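Appendix B. One record, verbatim.
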Amino acid sequence: MSEPASEPSGAAQSSSRRAVEEFARFAVIGVVGFIVDASTLKLLVAFAHMDLYTGRLLSYLAAATGNWMLNRRFTFKAARDEAPFKQWLKYLGANGVGFVVSYSTYAALITYVAVTKANPVLAVAAGTIAGLSFNFTINKFWVFRARA
């Protein structure tokens, strides 16, 4: 008969709990970013008469900057000692890959799915979800990595 699996150590449980809490905060901040992204896009299209593609580039930059500030403050607190501008540039660079995933999903939906062209917030949501896991991982282990 095999032995039962051992319980994780206190340190392992604490580390796992911290990772889950960080992901939850990252996801909540992502929702805030989604609201900024979608709202900014709507404003740029309605009032600045931008097309849906250019408007999304600018709305993404606004949302990404806000998300960086919130994640620096609330999600990855241990990494606040890095120079803000340098960290912001790392954040934009690292999240650029996530943005490619997000924007490609958005652009494909806007181009090929009539309901999302009529309601681009749906395409923004789909793109946001597509980049979430990649972005959390790259942020946790590179952009906001705590210094030893």
